[in-house]
Known about the structure:
The chain is of the alpha+beta class. The protein is built from 2 helices and 8 strands, in the order αβββββββαβ. Helix content is 15%, strand content 26%.
Amino acid sequence: MNTRVMKYVCFAVALLVLEGCASSPRPGGYYKDDGPHETPPANLDRVADAVPRAEPLHKYANRPYEALGKRFVPMTSLQPFKQRGVASWYGKRYHGQKTSSGETYDMYAMTAAHPTLPIPSYARVTNVTNGKSVVVRINDRGPFKSERIIDLSYVAAYKLGFIQAGQARVDVEAIVPGRTAGL
């Protein structure tokens, strides 16, 4: 190939890469400005995991529902549950808003959204790439993108090491208070 054709091919490839970056969030970018606050707290490493405890299940948050044209049927009892898939996180765009449980979302608390785990419940989430693990309290519904299984709070994703990437492959295991499995 001559130099002119090579330059054209390189230019075309660069345009395709840039177009792909503009069409969806990529590692290091935040979806609809849903990143961290300009100055997140300095003590994020010291935020304690959620402590599993027996709680009554929410009267309304565990009813079947529809989101983005798909029907979801939440679990109505605490029971063993394991799942592997992609986790994402949500931040300042939802900080201070009501969750499905009626609680106020705090991006600096160890919480998560899951489409079917009972509300409230607890889960151990492990980043399969680096082995880091956290315990979160499920108090919200989501994510509703088919390739994602759990949305974590900003601090939970920070502790799992995937803030910049935006998502990570994880194992999710329900914790049933009073049972030793999962703890």
